[in-house]
Design a protein that fits this description.
30% of the residues lie in helices and 25% in strands. The protein has 824 residues and is of the alpha+beta class. Among the domains are: 272 residues, Distorted Sandwich (Beta-galactosidase, Chain A, domain 5), CATH 2.70.98; 76 residues, Golgi alpha-mannosidase II (Immunoglobulin-like, Sandwich). A hairpin with a 2-residue loop joins strand 11 and strand 12. The protein starts with a helix and ends with a strand.
């Protein structure tokens, strides 16, 4: 490698890089190294992930590769005869109202547990210094550029590290510098919690390993929770990490202990990782990809480029997504808190500082995380995104599809990151295949179905270890149907008719076929689901007996109405499948309707049962309010009021993701101040070691969501909730500032997306709109709702007034921007 690799480095590249004007303060920074994982800083490119600790003497990067999971393809027919229990369960429910028997029988319809997302390993950089104190320490994560820095002085020498995870070049790049020549000395090595060995291949230090063939969930007590080798079909996947160091003046040697660098002024480390994963239906040990070849090629291609080139390719790629949206919030408190490290600034916010920088950063941090853990062609974001340090991670760090996976993608479309939605669509396609077998083998029905949990292998059966799981979560049948909402949302935001035709419609139709077969009539002639549960919640039978399996839980019926309605609309848009559309319309009219209970609340079950746990974290029966569109203050005021009463009874308490969901609920109810109070709750500083979700959720020092323990869905749900406060478009109108909280007196936002493929930017002052622009990306009629009267520049428009405000309707041309001004 020639010296040009190192010497063409400007001051801006050495000390940091420029971010788009107005967003250059979007940095998490700290005055001490991370002591624990929830203080470390996340980097990712959709496939590779790293948590950077910023230690001085022994830097630690905890590493993940998005396809490194235990197990292999889903085994076939794991519970023969399961479908025979369906009529028995229905008899217990319809004819005897024997909920205990229904629960016991439902357990007999369970399959195997999901597999686990695994940590690949740790990269350790043991830097060697003369004795002396460390001063001027600072580490940060610049989310405007997706680069992490660590800087400090030692014996009068300024040391710096910069780390980024490149999507264009598929490597992690670490640059170490010193401002005195020949002052960098370190040993770099790696290890793993999985089975591994080290070797040397040319100039590369290599860690080769094997993943377990099976890992039991962390909540399951078992004698042998981690199993290596053949489990009756497929060994675990292989993986490889390769490390290469380059320097223009230092001495570099490599052995099986690691890479050793002495007397360098600048060093660049390259980290390349790959697995043998070859698709959800291929055994990674016998049909897998060549992980050595993949990791080697990524590395060889990267080291041919100069560091400035690698960095600029990374920045161009990342800015192409991140810079689409900006948010500014007037912040008079900034002068008092801007010099605080981010953890202390978060703590001050929790104590009432009013520092809106925390909110603004949290909003963009959610977008940063989605760009970092979900990229086209890669795996979908799991329960922890792409970052996990534990062999048996909480809830297997899997795909929990009774809300958590879906919540990961709530901000994808509206915050202008449609491309990041793609990996979820890939998972849905895989689920439609395994779910077809589950529908047939577990129910004897057509179509496809997915339940509470899934994994890299697209597991779709009811989990529980064939009888060990609680049906209240394990046997919920609506996971695939809820995921179909993401397909429809993507179409609504992009108007991509090819996607609707080729991808969304077939998948939605397959899910609907299962539902049509699964629905059964009750005594009143309504179509209902049975067995039916409201995820993870239970009801009272009599004074104290607990029930969990019943008929027609409200969430079931709302999801099915949503699926049928979206599929009917898709059929009309595509002008196809008229007979099937008529069938759906007829069946939709017979679905068991929403019910209002004796407390004025929306019922959670088909009967007006009381809750065993009044403040339960799930509020599943409000699916129709958000993310669904069945309930709205304007369209269904009685049900909206019942939803409000439900939220009042449930209370604002909850885990991190639960608070995030409630932000979205209150925004849809147009109560911005209540949504804002929950945002403040979500941003409550949580101790870095807090892991018990009964203690309530919040935000860790590194701004990751505290369920607790860490779940990334709270971050994404929080970003989505803030967006819903600023912009809504689910009712065929673009509603500007629908739930504006009093605290956001002045600000602006650019680049948000609305359904109909519109890009929206706004400014406001004194909590009132002062101007907006609507860019039409597909053409068509646009309806804009505002709380005050507005005018539209240069275009003829129709203005109407109703109790909810003003609606201005106008025709648009593709590619044209329309300016909206308030009437003074």
């Amino acid at each position: 490698m020639t010296n040009k690799f190192f010497f063409f480095i400007s001051a801006s590249l050495f000390f940091g890089v420029h971010v788009a004007e107005g967003q250059n303060d979007l940095k998490l920074w700290y005055d001490k190294p991370a002591g624990v994982w929830t203080e470390a800083l996340p980097l990712g490119n959709g496939r590779l992930g790293a948590m950077v600790f910023g230690r001085v003497n022994e830097e630690l990067l905890q590493l993940n590769e998005g396809t490194l999971w235990s197990g292999g393809p889903v085994k076939d027919n794991v519970n023969p005869g399961a479908s025979a229990y369906l009529p028995q369960i229905r008899d217990a429910l319809f004819n005897h109202e024997d909920y205990a028997k229904a629960t016991a029988l439902t357990k007999k319809m369970q399959g195997v547990y999901s597999e686990s997302f695994l940590p690949l390993g740790n990269l350790l950089i043991r830097q060697i210094f003369p004795a002396g104190p460390t001063t001027n320490y600072r580490r940060d994560l610049d989310i405007g550029n997706a680069v992490a820095h660590t800087r400090f002085r030692r014996n009068g020498i300024q040391y710096a590290r910069a780390v980024f995870c490149s999507a264009p070049d598929q490597v992690i790049v670490i640059r170490l510098t010193a401002d005195r020549r020949s002052s960098i000395n370190f040993d770099a090595t790696s290890n793993s919690l999985l089975h591994y060995q080290h070797n040397v291949e040319g100039k590369d230090f290599v860690l080769k390993g094997n993943a377990p063939a099976h890992v039991d969930p962390s909540y399951l007590n078992s004698n042998n929770p981690v199993v290596y080798g053949d489990t009756g079909g497929c060994n675990g996947m292989r993986f490889q990490l390769r490390l290469r160091a380059l320097s223009n003046d230092g001495a570099i040697s490599v052995d099986t202990a690691g890479i050793h660098v002495r007397h360098a002024t600048l060093v660049v480390l390259f980290v390349s990782m790959a697995t043998s994963f070859n698709g959800f239906d291929k055994c990674p040990s016998s049909e897998g990809k060549d992980e050595r070849s993949l990791a080697t090629n990524y590395l060889q291609n990267a080291i041919r480029r100069t560091y400035p080139d690698l960095l600029q390719r990374h920045l161009a790629d990342y800015h192409g997504y991140f810079n689409r949206v900006s948010l500014e919030l007037h912040n008079p408190a900034a002068k008092n808190y801007a010099l605080l490290p981010s953890d202390k600034r978060l703590s001050a916010y929790s104590e009432g500082s009013g520092d809106t920088w925390v909110e603004r950063l949290y909003f963009q941090f959610g977008r940063y995380l989605l760009i970092s853990c979900s990229r086209p062609g890669g795996p979908a974001a799991n329960l922890q995104g792409i970052w996990n340090q534990e062999l048996r991670a909480p809830w297997s760090s899997n795909y929990t599809i009774n809300i958590n996976t879906q919540m990961n993608y709530w901000p994808a479309e509206e915050t202008n990151l449609s491309e990041m939605h793609g990996p979820l669509f890939g998972l849905i396609e895989d689920l439609s295949v395994t779910g077809g077998r589950t529908a047939k083998q577990f129910y004897g029905l057509r179509g496809w179905v997915a339940h509470h949990n899934s994994d890299l292998w697209a597991l779709s059966n009811p989990v529980g270890g064939i009888g060990g799981g609680d049906p209240k979560w394990a046997n919920w049948t609506q996971g695939g149907n809820w995921l179909c909402r993401d397909l429809w949302e993507h179409y609504q935001f992009t108007l991509d008719k090819k996607f609707l035709q080729d991808t969304a419609y077939p998948l939605m139709k397959g899910a609907a076929l299962f539902v049509l077969d699964f629905l059964t009539e009750n005594k009143e002639g309504y179509l209902v689901t049975a067995p039916s549960v409201s995820p993870e919640n239970v009801f009272k039978v009599g004074d104290s007996t607990e029930g969990e399996v019943a008929i027609a839980a409200t969430m079931d019926m709302s999801i099915i109405r949503d699926l049928f309605s979206n599929l009917i609309n898709a059929s009309l848009i595509l002008n196809q499948d008229a007979a099937f559309r008529e069938k759906l319309m007829a069946q939709r009219s017979k679905l068991f309707p929403l019910q209002v209970g004796h407390r004025g609340n929306l019922q959670e079950w088909y009967k007006d049962f009381d809750d065993m746990e009044v403040h339960h974290r799930h509020v599943s029966h409000l699916f129709g309010l958000y993310p669904g569109t069945e309930i709205s203050p304007a369209g269904t005021p009685a049900y909206a009021e019942a939803a409000r009463r439900t939220l009042e009874i449930r209370g604002d308490e909850g885990t991190g993701w639960s608070k995030a969901w409630k932000i979205n609920f209150w925004a849809r109810l147009l109560d911005g101040d209540h949504a804002y109070r929950l945002l403040q709750d979500l941003l409550h500083a949580t101790r870095e070691h807090q892991t018990n979700y009964q203690e309530g959720g919040g935000t860790y020092p590194n701004f990751l969501d505290a369920h607790p323990p860490f779940q990334i869905d709270g971050n994404f749900g929080g970003t989505a909730g803030m967006t819903e406060m600023l912009l809504q478009s689910q009712s065929g109108e673009i509603f500007l500032l629908p739930a504006m909280p009093g605290a956001w007196k002045e600000g602006s936002v650019t680049g948000l997306k609305a359904r109909g493929n519109f890009s929206v930017s706004m400014k406001w002052a004194q909590n009132r709109l002062t101007g907006a622009s609507i860019r039409s990306l597909s053409g068509g009629v646009c309806k804009v709702r505002t709380k005050g009267p507005v005018t539209l520049s240069t275009v003829r428009a129709k203005v109407t007034k109703d109790p909810g405000g003003y609606v201005i309707t106008f025709s648009t041309r593709k590619g044209k921007t329309y300016m909206i001004h308030p009437v003074k």
